[in-house]
Amino acid sequence: AAVIHLVREIRERKVDIIHTHLVRAGIVGKLAASIVRVPVVTTRHYTRDAKSRRWDFVAEDVLTRLLADRVIAIGDSVFDTIREQKMCAPEKIVLHRNAIDVASYVCQGRDERTPNLVIGTVGRLHPAKAHEVFLDALAMVRRTHPEVTGVIVGGGERLVALKEYADRCGVLDAVTFTGAVDSDTVRDWLHRFDIFVLPSDWEGLPISLIEAAAAGLPIVATDVGGCPEVVRDGENGFLVPPRDPAAVANAVERLIRDVSLRDAFGNRAVEIAKSEFDIHRLADQTADLYREIRMRKACT
Questions:
Q1: Within its chain, how far is the Cα of 182 from the centroid?
Q2: Which residues are bridge partners to 154 per DSSP?
Q3: Domain extent listing, the chain
Q4: Phi, psi dihedrals of residue 202, rounded to the nearest 5°
């Protein structure tokens, strides 16, 4: 039914290009585009997933291989994965890094110092985000810095389980769980953080890291997926192994002790966000790709 509805919309609106994101929308979009004979672009956001052998992931991969005119990788790690998996012909793959409106995230008021530092993370409450590592690291940090508190921004089905885990770690009273929030609220929380932590098991190119960099935060992130594309170890943050709360805690404590290092990392993070991850660059790249596809179609 979804495919039939989309076919009707494409014809009525005289759509020139279909651009799909994510898995099930990608299946519907590519099938509809093939029926109407409209070019299709698909953006691949991930390197791998625990559900990657589920029927819809497999179907989307097959349809991408058969029907996509271009496959956009959101980062270097995703680009490499697409090539390694031979998801499509190499000439069809293009690299358009994830991006945000950097200017809207720049923080103007972090000069007001308080001794009660806030360590925060942003992301859906999914096992791959490894929030237990964040909570373990927070507990370790608070042994020597009891004034430090934590914030977990994001919603999901693991909220109750993570609160129970925080209680077992002895940090329930020191951590705030915001639940699901909108993008404006995410930005407001980032402006309250002093250090950003992303302890994920795997990532594509995480928007949350780009947002944290644009907000001028020093970052501690796991060395997985596209995280090193945003976090340059020793330049705007620290990269640590996955599932290693002690490594996270050690990196955070180093930033707690050294205000000048936090400032240097934060300033460099903003520079990287502005130069490499601004939405205007991505908009120009996408528009150029659409024009190329339309011109090629006109010539056939």
A1: 15
A2: 179
A3: 2-99+279-298, 102-276
A4: -155, 155
Q: Hey, what amino acid is at 298?
A: A
Q: How would you label 106-124 residue by residue, b for 16+ Cβ within 10 Å and e otherwise?
A: ebeebeeeeeebbbbbbbe
Average pLDDT (255-281) is: 97
274 Cβ neighbours under 8 A, 6+ residues apart:
102, 214
- Judge if 2-99+279-298 and 102-276 fold alike in CATH terms: yes
pLDDT at residue 243 greater than cutoff 60: yes
The whole-angstrom separation of Cα 58 and Cα 52 is: 7
**What pLDDT band is residue 113 in, cutting at 50, 70 and 90?**
low
Strand spans (E) along the chain? 18-21, 40-44, 70-73, 93-95, 118-122, 149-153, 175-177, 195-198, 219-222, 237-240
Rg (CA), the chain: 21
Overall average pLDDT of the 247-276 stretch = 97
Q: Which CATH number fits domain 102-276: 3.40.30.10, 3.40.710.10, 3.10.290.10, 3.40.50.2000?
A: 3.40.50.2000
Q: For the chain, give percent helix, strand, coil, nearest 5.
A: 50, 15, 35
DSSP 145: -
Ramachandran bin of 129, using left for φ above 0, alpha for ψ from -120 to 50, beta for the remaining angles: alpha
Q: Is the pLDDT of residue 114 over 70?
A: no
2-99+279-298 sits in which CATH class? alpha beta
Reported as a single tens digit per residue, the pLDDT across 43-92 is 999 876 545 678 888 899 999 999 999 999 999 999 999 999 888 999 99
Cα angle value 35/39/44 (rounded, 5°)? 105
